[in-house]
Design goal:
The protein contains 22 helices and no strands. By secondary structure, the protein is an all-alpha fold. It has a single domain (3-415), classed as Growth Hormone, Chain: A (Up-down Bundle).
């Protein structure tokens, strides 16, 4: 009996893999949320815009390694197994994230401090390159046939859950500590806590079975690594990258970067910015499974298309609403409103992406498509919009960036194929 036909196995797979996915979202979240403190500690203690620019650039540096990590780990997942790849990724992401919290400051060890941060970000980037594809493949292949979008929606829900956890930690720390204490040692706490994810990787390696549908497909269509790469059609990769464009941009700009943006552009204090992010993330977390179920009923493409168009049209008015009267209440309203559209687009996307590629090379194809998008528009998104705001003085630069991504993904949706439900 396949995993997809066994409800108990499917639910166990969903719970464990959803927890494993959280480490990637947690890594991204805490770095982006504490970008100002990281800039102060490792790059520029004068607190200038240059220090912030260097900090968000370092966030993007890790994404240079994602395509390489995505290809190699995607091949590993397709040839060795889904659970082996996920376990390795969890262990390495946990270790590299925790070590960032232990690096001494620039005044203590000089140039070695930012160099170590960059090196660990490269390690994180390499292993996070295979995280999305491996977990998406596992979730879709473990799901009952009529619940593919619901199961796959936990890819996004888990990342948002990790963001919510980190935002709650950030809100608690920023409320309890003075700015000096936060910059000195407080920001390190959530990084060190990432080490707690390590045992989960060992559990997955020892206890979780690979989906039966994957094992059957691998046995029937065994291919050498070179064939897995060359057999992936460019059209599939381009459509997948286009679909991932808005997914990446909403994550990096409207979730991870939003607290920093609210502080630096609108003058909203850190604790208030974290509380607003928590409200938006909680809304998104609750809505993701519901949007997954909606997509199982009506199809992924219609739900995602409506959301993409909605984001393209409404992102500027939402940010302008906050800019007009920059208060915590307005920021909460904007983030919760945008969360509805983000959930409608990102909850079904994992199922639609998985359907682009055959099972036996799904993780490889997904990794190439997703990481291509992440490298071009995602990881360096905060850097681009920060640079644009500094150069032009226009604090609405994030709105233009999100709207452009929405238009690209809308075009990709028109070419994507979807399996019957």
């Amino acid at each position: 009996m396949s995993a997809a036909a066994n409800p108990a196995t499917s639910k166990k797979s969903l719970a464990v893999v959803a927890s494993a996915i959280a480490i990637e979202g947690y890594d991204l979240s805490i770095y982006a949320l504490f970008a100002l403190s990281i800039a102060y500690t490792f790059f520029d203690q004068a607190g200038s815009a240059t220090g912030l620019l260097l900090a968000v650039a370092t966030l993007g540096v890790g994404y240079v390694m994602r395509p390489l990590g995505g290809v190699l780990l995607g091949l590993y997942a397709d040839r060795v197994g889904r659970k082996a790849a996920i376990a390795l990724i969890v262990l390495m992401m946990s270790a590299s994230t925790g070590l960032i919290g232990l690096i001494p400051s620039y005044p203590a060890i000089g140039l070695a401090a930012p160099i170590l941060v960059v090196l660990l970000r490269l390690v994180q980037g390499f292993f996070s390159g295979g995280a999305a594809a491996g977990s998406i493949s596992f979730l879709v292949e473990s799901a009952p046939p009529n619940k593919r979008a619901f199961y796959a929606s936990w890819q996004q829900a888990s990342q948002v859950g990790a963001f919510l956890l980190s935002a709650l930690i950030g809100a608690a720390i920023s409320s309890a500590l003075t700015p000096e204490e936060l910059n000195s040692w407080g920001w390190r706490v959530p990084f060190v806590l990432a080490l707690l994810f390590g045992p989960l990787g060992l559990y997955i390696k020892r206890s979780m079975p690979d989906p039966e549908s994957f094992k059957e497909a691998r046995a029937e269509a065994a291919e050498p690594a070179a064939k897995m790469l060359t057999g992936t059609r460019p059209s599939e990769v381009l459509i997948g990258a286009g679909l991932s464009c808005l997914w990446n941009v909403t994550a990096f700009i409207l979730l991870y970067f939003m607290p920093t943006y609210a502080q630096s552009s609108f003058g909203i204090d850190m604790a208030a910015a974290f509380r607003a992010s928590c409200a938006g993330a909680a809304t998104l977390f609750v809505l993701c499974p519901l949007m997954g179920m909606l997509s199982d009923r009506y199809g992924c493409k219609p739900v995602m298309l409506a959301a993409a168009i909605g984001l393209a049209v409404l992102i500027y008015p939402a940010l302008a609403f906050v800019a007009e009267v920059p208060t915590e209440a307005r920021l909460i309203i904007a983030q919760m409103g945008l969360a509805v559209l983000i959930a409608a687009y990102t909850a079904p996307i994992s199922a639609l992406l998985a359907e682009l590629f055959p099972i036996h090379r799904r993780s490889t194809g997904l990794s190439i498509a997703y990481n291509l998008s992440t490298l071009i528009v995602g990881g360096f998104g905060p850097f681009f919009v920060t640079w644009l705001m500094i150069e032009t003085g226009d604090q609405m630069a994030p709105a233009y960036y999100v709207a452009g991504a929405a238009l690209i993904s809308t075009v990709a949706l028109l070419f994507a194929r979807e399996a019957d439900r």
